[in-house]
Amino acid sequence: MKALMFEHVTKTYKVGRGFVNALDDVSFEIESEKVTVVLGPSGSGKSTLLNLMGGMDRPSEGKITVFGSNIAKLSEYALTEYRRKKIGFVFQFYNLIPSLNALENVSIVQKMNNQSFDPKEMINDVGLGKRSRYFPSELSGGELQRLSIARALCKNPDILLCDEPTGALDSMTGQTILKLMVKMARKYKKTVIIVTHNASIALCADSVIHLKDGKIESIEQNKKPLTVDEVKW
Ligand SMILES: Nc1ncnc2c1ncn2[C@@H]1O[C@H](COP(=O)(O)OP(=O)(O)OP(=O)(O)O)[C@@H](O)[C@H]1O
């Protein structure tokens, strides 16, 4: 089943008196329950792509279909509902609430979605069971990243969007995080989309989209993705 389809999507930004096509006539499909990696150099349009997928922004032209509905046409209200219910975000800026402990930070998403998972189970699953009463200021970068994954997962979203999830982490912690992302697709049947500069991550993906100058350079299907342990970092 297709989770996501982009058809001739262009995103144009106005800069001074001119325009920049951050994405230029981009078309591709993403299978559900798979891991897709988006690779590309700085400025190639990766964040723009992620913002469009997550309903944070709308395309200037083209059609974006998510599980059968064209999100480019949704009202503002419906788009907010889409973001709240369907999408889990794992961004580098963790957006955790400093005055809430780890468990409370995960539990708040229960209010957003009545199909959410058990927060305690999610915290255990990312290996933070013993840290559930800690506050964000008492956690390391890797732990914060795992906590933000637990929160994104707790919402039980259909699609998980990850922006450089291992960017600021050492390779051991990065591997742990990547294992969690892959597990989300394999165990929890989520559609996982990871935007990164790190080509090693692509070896674990089912498909890899290469972006360059706002265009798709190539799309590879990986019949035999490696496990995270098999990848050399
Ligand atoms: N809000 C904006 N206004 C104007 N130009 C923008 C805006 N957002 C992005 N751009 C331009 O669009 C192009 C693509 O940007 P984008 O952030 O999507 O790239 P990226 O691949 O995510 O880069 P990086 O890896 O450095 O984060 C760049 O040339 C950028 O300057």
UniProtKB/TrEMBL annotation:
Cellular compartments per GO CC: membrane protein complex
What are the entry keywords?
Answer: ATP-binding, Nucleotide-binding, Transport
Q: Which GO terms describe its molecular function?
A: ATP binding; ATP hydrolysis activity; transmembrane transporter activity
InterPro entries documented for this protein? AAA+_ATPase, ABC_transporter-like_ATP-bd, ABC_transporter-like_CS, MacB-like_ATP-bd, P-loop_NTPase
Indicate the segments forming the ABC transporter domain, all copies: 4-231
Pfam families per record: ABC_tran
Q: Source organism's superkingdom?
A: Bacteria
Instruction: Look up the coiled coil feature and give its residue ranges.
Output: none
Family, as annotated: Belongs to the ABC transporter superfamily.
* Name of the protein described by the UniProt record: ABC transporter, ATP-binding protein
Q: Whose protein is this, by species?
A: Shuttleworthella satelles DSM 14600
